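Tutorial handout. Part one gives the primary structure; part two gives the three-dimensional structure as tokens.
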Amino acid sequence: MGNKRILLFLGLATLVLSALACEFSATTANIKDAYLVTDESSGTKTTTYTQDQPFVFVVELANAPDDTKVKAVWYAYDESGTATQFVEKEMVTGGSPITFSATNNGPWPVGKYKVELYLNDKLNKTVEFSVE
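Part two.
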């Protein structure tokens, strides 16, 4: 009778562990590279823009399934060093590269900026840049 109880216990433990494994979801997606460029066509990396340039942020993914969520959040710093968000863009994709851009109706104010990169809702990278 003892062996039957052990087998029953092992069987139930296997079922419980199998059910837990079905609930667990992990992604293999990661950021291969993320950088600012002067414009989409040239691909020239930069951390400095002029007042009339759009901000262009390129994100290269690796091992990304089709439901990978990538978000760019843009901030401008004021004179006191406080960062204020001015645009947020999000995509769900498995493709790469992804290009995010931010434009302004007039010239960008001279100063410091940053863009935060989120992968599946987790902050992955922050890139600081400036407008001169």
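Part three, for discussion. The two ends are 82 Å apart (CA to CA). The longest strand covers residues 83-93.
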